[in-house]
Amino acid sequence: MDAQGARTDDRWHIGETVVNVGGENTYLWNVLDGESRFLLATHISRNRDMDNTRAPIPKAKGVTPDRPVDVLSDGMNSYPVAIGKELGRRATPFDDPKYVHGGRFNPHHRVPSIGAPESNNRIERFHGTEKERTKVMRAFDNERGASNLADGFRVHYNLVRDHQTLGMTPGEAVGIPIGPGFKWQKVIEEATKAKPRTVTPEKIAQ
Predict the structure, then answer these.
(1) Chain segment 180-195, per-residue pLDDT in tens
(2) Span 75-126, pLDDT tens digits
(3) Using N-to-C axis directions, what is the helix angle for 121-133 and 143-159, rounded to 10°?
(4) 40 touches 31 (CB < 8 A)
(5) Domains of the chain
(6) d(Cα 43, Cα 41) in Å, to the nearest integer?
(7) How far apart (Å, rounded) are the C-alpha atoms in residues 205 and 6?
């Protein structure tokens, strides 16, 4: 999926939500394309420091050749710096002056409230959908297992089910082929196929 070169819009949404991993509150980060609702990246962490705020953004950049000119987030203080470091660049005369500081263009846009004209409610609604599917995370006692589940849900969300508003999958909306070039049914069949058990000489001796 990530190698298909998804074509995204110029507005991304980034946000984090709390999930239960092994009985502890853990942060699940998401980067969502605003137009297609394509989930570009997820990330699991125990805290919200700068490294973890930045972590999902390089993943998102690796999925698409496109770069946003507007990245919406809530008011967490680490977002402007993280987004500026990962998606900032030298300003041009065509850039919106409100995004230019010291000759650098930073696409970060803080949303003041959920009722603002340019709200981040698309990712907030997505978090509700995601948490319905990831309640099982409390059964995992480490971040790696939770991260695998979040990535699996990302594939399901992007490629399997139609989005109600779009009438197609987010994957179709960004141009990921669903015909002969992407045999999703075959991928599922192979992934769920029972693996033969290997009997070692040690097991036989026992």
Answers:
(1) 555 666 666 766 776 6
(2) 899 999 999 999 999 999 999 998 999 999 999 999 875 555 566 778 888 8
(3) 110
(4) yes
(5) 11-205 (3.30.420.10)
(6) 7
(7) 53
User: Quick check: 114 and 122 in contact, CB under 8 A?
Assistant: no
Cα end-to-end span (Å), the chain: 44
Q: What phi, psi does 56 have (nearest 5°)?
A: -75, -20
Give CA torsion, residues 175, 179, 184, 187, to 10 deg.
-120
**Contacting residues for 76 by C-beta, under 8 A, at least 6 apart:** 16, 48, 53
Task: Name the pTM for this structure.
Answer: 0.82
Closest by CA to 139, choosing from 43, 22, 24, 45, is: 22
The secondary structure of residue 102, as a DSSP letter, is T
User: What residue type is 130 in one-letter code?
Assistant: E
